[in-house]
Amino acid sequence: MTDIQQHALSFGPVAAQYEAARPSYPAELFDELERLLGRPLKDADVLDVGAGTGIATRLLAARGARVVALEPSPGMAALLRRVSPGIPVVKGVGDELPFHDASLDLVGYAQAFHWTDPAKSIPEALRVLRPGGKLALWWNVKDRATGWIKAQEDRLVVALPNYHAYGGVIAGAEQLTEAGLAVEHVTLHWERQVTVDSHLTDLTSRSYFAVLTEEQRAPVLAAERAALLAEFPDGVLTEPYVLDLFVAGRA
């Protein structure tokens, strides 16, 4: 198993942490998505690929989309079904979509496109999209222009040999242009206030922590807790995010 495959398959055991502490998405994301789609999400047939526990799936459904969640991890899919029993969940991956040709208005990837092989996932998305349909990719990334976030990243680079940030977001999205698609890009800024405990729970849901044993994770988390409480002694911090949205369609 490759390192990428190991990381991609690591989420099942941390599904509860993922659901409890991963950031959601601001309403502005879906406003922009509708603008770039050129239509409301209401009554659109939407596929959420790599849906995880359904964080984005539920927000798409709340906009009135007929959304199906596609998720390869049994652990993540089981939690999604439990939390959102009304949303259909299908096992599968973006590189081989189990859907008919020209059956969808939108194929979306929330924090998930980097786990695919774009040489396969892009043609698959185009195959299942109806004329005028779009492929949308988006990522929440903590804003590294903020001092404490950059300092934490520097610590994790040293502490975790398998640490990786979402450095390939823009590079991955460039595959859309290379595939001959017309691509529009929007960047949003937003923030949320969380406790140090919640922030650390979010960290444990990341693949670079999920692949570690408890013995490997514990000292890193203890060091992070100490560093964060030294900077935020009341135990509450504000996480600023940069949210990149790419919407692509046939040129």
UniProtKB/TrEMBL annotation:
One of its GO terms (biological process) is methylation. GO terms for molecular function: methyltransferase activity. InterPro entries: Diverse_substrate_MTase, Methyltransf_11, SAM-dependent_MTases_sf. The keyword Protein biosynthesis does not apply. Residues 47-136 form the Methyltransferase type domain. The keyword Methyltransferase applies. Keywords: Methyltransferase, Transferase. Pfam families: Methyltransf_11 (PF08241). Belongs to the methyltransferase superfamily. This is Class I SAM-dependent methyltransferase. The lineage of its organism: Bacteria, Bacillati, Actinomycetota, Actinomycetes, Kitasatosporales.
